[in-house]
Amino acid sequence: MRPFAVAAVAALLSTGALAAPADDLKSILDEHWAWTLRNNPTYATMLGVRDHDREVGDPSLEAEDRRAKEAQAFVARLDRIDPAALSPADRTNRAILRRQLAEQVEGNRFGQRAMTFTSYSSWFQNAAGLGEQLPFQTKADYESYLARLEKYPAYNDAYIEVTRRGLKDGYAQPCAPLGGFEKTIAGVIAADPTRSRFYSPFRQRPSTISEAEWRPLEARARELIAGTINPAYEKTLAFYTEEYAPKCRRTIGISATKGGPAYYAFRVRAETTTDLTPDAIHKLGLSEVARIAAEMEGVAKKAGFADRKTYIQHLRTDTRYYPKTGGELMREAGYIAKLIDGWMPKLFGRLPRLPYTVREVPAEIAPGTTTAYYNSGTLSSGTPGVYYVNTSKLDQRPLFELPALTIHEAVPGHHHQISLAQELDLPAFRRFGYSATAFVEGWGLYSERLGIEMGLYDTPAKDMGRLSYERWRACRLVVDTGIHSKGWTRDQAIRFMLDNTALSRGNIEAEVNRYITWPGQALAYKLGELTIRRLRDRAETELGSRFDLRAFHDAVLEQGAVPLDVLEAHVAEWIAKRKAA
């Protein structure tokens, strides 16, 4: 998946603004945010900024180059500011923005930038989900959405051209994880336009639009889906099946591509916000896998089984642990979510205002994607956060995993952290535009452990589910580095995870496909979680009876998503202040 594009307003380059030596940080932050929204128009609409409502953006490589050049100009401006002249808060703002921009510039130098999709995400799936993410409250909202549908073919063509150029240069995804991938394209094509995902905003007329105004909008939507959207997806499907799939890569590690080792090293740094080498991460993963195994042995014995492997085999094969219908799975996920909601005031002093909901993963991607995921919403656009649950392959979706899964994706995991960040007194780029994966995913994994304090793992099966999820993230450190720096095969990665987690084979295969096609991202979870746990241990030790769990959690989250070194410094300062008080 191509990283979130951060691009500069070209007009700034033609003026003296970028070269002005007397730049102040606030001016740069304001210009940078306007720049970001202009180059990410659909995201701007999601945030309630309506200046670019009819635009779709430019994914071409030429535009990427322009954005990288403009990003470098912002870096130069930031470098002319003396950090010593800034407040501590602004020093952090400057450092984070510089890091983000520098990573964009560096990432654009690699040919792998033309690998435009993963087994987890793609431009055509993102487009199909716009109807669930954009605001639809006024006639203008619907008109701008229709204008974007009209522009989709050109947008799609630009992405195909980028992908084709990458294919020509040898930058293709491996064959192994792409089995059935064509269904994620074909599944969007609906013979009946009213059954298309693109038609979802038109299934209910808002009270702000009269019946007379509504009928032409509905008709235009049906016309565009049938005559514009479907043909574009058919073109994408033909490109994939006739051009891309026959030239997929036989090797699976990104290091086998041109410049691959350097690219993987970059991805590791960017995703983990650390300087750890792939080899060091691999060894840490093996250590964590072994540590967690000892805990799993204890749970197995508590359940009456001889050892961990025997108990896991029982959990994988006993049908009573699995839902019979998608409705049963969704009801259980919703029930657990509400149980957790009741614990939130006990664990946090500050809660976000934005609510979340629970939905099924879209049918065309469900068989090949992960067991669940989260999409953020915003109050300004009137869209909730969404915890998506995968209801395909029900014999691979054990109910005993749901407590840990729901904690991670909803609350107190992703929804709580991301929605709270939107309300903080921080520059806009930190509230909405900067995602430090190691922090975000580390917090999600740390949150799973809070289920112990909530009493949610009240059976050996649920506790084994929690430990299996933690060990799964430890396995990621081993498997991701194994694939991309040590020459592991896909079968070797699958076997390692089968031997070391309680996950079903279907989940494991989807996960390994994700690691293959999205190098480095999976490393962030465990490294972030270990950092937060270490900081909590330090705070409890140094503060003793003065340690307040709610205050600690609020301190961890009060800066939004930050690099791990920034988090460590902030919590150290918080501890010092509590001790002094």
Count every beta strand, where a strand is a DSSP E run of 2 or more residues: 3
State the separation between the terminal residues, measured CA to CA: 47 Å
Helix content: 55-70%
Instruction: Please state the average pLDDT score.
Output: 94
Largest sheet: 3 strands, mixed
**In order across it, which strands form the biggest sheet?**
1-3-2
Q: How much β-strand is present in the residues?
A: under 5%
Q: What is the count of DSSP helices, taking H or I runs of 4+ residues?
A: 25
What structural category do the secondary elements indicate?
mainly alpha
Choose one word for the global shape.
globular
How would you spell out the order of helices and strands?
Answer: HHHHHHHHHHHHHHHEEEHHHHHHHHHH
The low-confidence parts are: 1-22
Q: What is the C-alpha radius of gyration, as a whole number of Å?
A: 24 Å
What is this structure, in a nutshell?
The protein has helices at residues 10-13, 25-39, 41-46, 61-79, 88-107, 123-128, 130-133, 139-168, 183-186, 211-244, 260-272, 278-302, 308-317, 326-341, 344-347, 402-409, 414-422, 428-432, 437-454, 460-485, 490-500, 505-517, 524-543, 549-557, 564-580, and strands spanning 356-360, 372-375, 385-389. The protein is mostly helical.
Features:
mainly alpha; three-stranded mixed beta sheet; 25 helices; 3 strands; 581 residues; disordered N terminus; 60% helix
Protein described:
- With 581 residues, the protein is mainly alpha-helical.
- It has a domain at 263-528.
- 60% of the residues lie in helices and 2% in strands.
- It has helices spanning 10-13, 25-39, 41-46, 61-79, 88-107, 123-128, 130-133, 139-168, 183-186, 211-244, 260-272, 278-302, 308-317, 326-341, 344-347, 402-409, 414-422, 428-432, 437-454, 460-485, 490-500, 505-517, 524-543, 549-557, 564-580; strands at residues 356-360, 372-375, 385-389.
- Mean pLDDT is 94; it is low at 1-22.
